[in-house]
Amino acid sequence: MKRALRNGLLLVATAALSFGFAQSAVEDFQQNGITIATANEIPYGWVENGEAQGIGPDVAEAVLANMGITDIEWTVTEFGSLIPGLIANRFDLVAASQAVLPARCEQVSFSKINSSYGEGFLVAAGNPKDIHSYQDFVDNPDLKLGIVSGADQLDFAQAYGLDESQIVPLNANADAPSALTAGRIDAYGATGLTVVGLAEGNDRVEPAQPFEDPVVDGEPVRSYGAFTFSQDDAEFLEAFNTELAAFQETQEYRDILHSHGLTDTDIDAALGASTEALCAAE
Q1: Where are the beta strands (DSSP E) in 77-186?
Q2: Where are the strands (E) in the chain, listed by range?
Q3: Which SS3 state, helix, strand or coil, does residue 23 take?
Q4: For position 282, what pLDDT does the model report?
Q5: CA dihedral for 56, 157, 77, 122, sign (positive or negative)
Q6: 192 vs 200: CA distance, rounded Å
Q7: How far apart, in whole angstroms, are the C-alpha atoms of residue 191 and residue 117?
Q8: CA distance 278 to 282
Q9: Which residue of 6, 28, 76, 115 shows the fewest CB atoms closer than 10 Å?
């Protein structure tokens, strides 16, 4: 309903100048609220007892508050449905620290980079298959790798040439521990932060240690997360980016990311990255 109302207001303003158009979009969200999706993945974004938390939600709420937008309706969606849902106008913004990838940039628009993080594998306790890298799956084609549908770990697996029969799609990160203990998969590929979070309090699984970061096109992989917008919302994205850039200069921004396990190295990597360059990468 909010989205439909906003689209109606924007149609009335089609003849407005760019700045005025952006301002009208901000004013619409100030007056009518905004709907934001996340994927219930700790620490990137989740909803607990009706309250959104995580790297994406915490920063989004701070930035939007600075824009005068405080009426937020949060919705939880499976990771693989975030971009399709955004395109279908089921929500106005995604705050899930989605990695900026060229294929995704063809479908949606990304904000300034907000976070950066490395990779990891979740394995059964004791790592019985001795798995430490994507190369291990190349060396042993009998191994099965779990990956959340739509996640960029699928791109890493494909870059290494894993056979489709080795890849087991999962609906959510939370499904990984049970898939491991049931023997459906031998490892679960995700970001390092996700892996550590899934292993906490569960003595049947653990992060693979040591872990060898995937290397694609000669470069070790590091993911860069951002907020995701519809390509129809260029003016609102511009306004959001202005406030995000200002917020990233504050200690509050660093404190939020530190509280969710990111290091200064991670934060500095995010601040030094370019969304345009990541979208243009081959």
Answers
A1: 93-99, 109-117, 119-124, 145-148, 167-170
A2: 34-38, 46-48, 51-53, 72-76, 93-99, 109-117, 119-124, 145-148, 167-170, 187-191, 205-207, 215-216, 219-220, 223-229
A3: helix
A4: 64
A5: negative
A6: 13
A7: 7
A8: 9
A9: 76
107: which 2 tokens? 């479908």
- Model confidence at 220: pLDDT above 90: no
| Residue 162 predicted with pLDDT over 80 | yes
pLDDT for the residue numbered 3: 56
Task: Name the DSSP letter for residue 259.
Answer: H
Structure-block tokens of residue 65: 């508050």
pLDDT at 177 over 50: yes
**CB-based burial of residue 2 (10 Å sphere; 0-12 exposed, 13-18 middle, 19+ buried)?**
middle
For residue 50, give both structure tokens: 């009706």
Phi (first) and psi of residue 167, to 5 degrees: -105, 125
- pLDDT tens for 88-128 read 999 999 999 999 999 999 999 999 999 998 899 999 999 99
In the numeric block, which tokens belong to residue 186?
């031998």
2 and 32 Cβ atoms separated by less than 8 Å: yes
Strands 215-216 and 187-191: unpaired
Exposure b/e, 219-234, CB count within 10 A at least 16 = b: eebbbbbbbbbbeebe
Per-residue pLDDT tens over the stretch 237-267: 999 999 999 999 999 999 999 999 888 888 9
Q: Tell which residue, 124, 104, 112, has the closest CA to residue 203.
A: 124
Distance, in Å, from the CA atom of 148 to the CA atom of 144, rounded to the nearest integer, reads 13
